UniProtKB/TrEMBL annotation:
This is Helix-turn-helix transcriptional regulator. One of its GO terms (molecular function) is DNA binding. It comes from the Bacteria. Residues 21-62 form the HTH cro/C1-type domain. CDD domains: HTH_XRE.
Length: 68
């Protein structure tokens, strides 16, 4: 699965979080988040679940769907 970077950034804004603050709150390293957002690698489902939980959204709201 891949993260939709635009949707992720919207969720950050809705939660009034900076990228660094999100990484601290989620426990996900900055480098792992950069890889997840770049789309160069698939992100593990557990990591996507943690991202969604930290942002207070469902996984479906932040993943990149086919055709996007």
């Amino acid at each position: 699965m891949k993260i939709n970077k635009e949707k992720f950034e919207i969720c950050l804004a809705n939660n009034q979080l900076l990228f660094n603050d999100f990484c601290k709150k989620s426990g996900i390293s900055k480098s792992s988040m950069r890889f997840a957002l770049s789309g160069t690698r698939n992100t593990r489902p557990q990591t996507i679940g943690r991202i969604a939980e930290t942002l207070g959204v469902s996984v479906e709201e932040i993943i990149l769907k086919e055709g996007e």
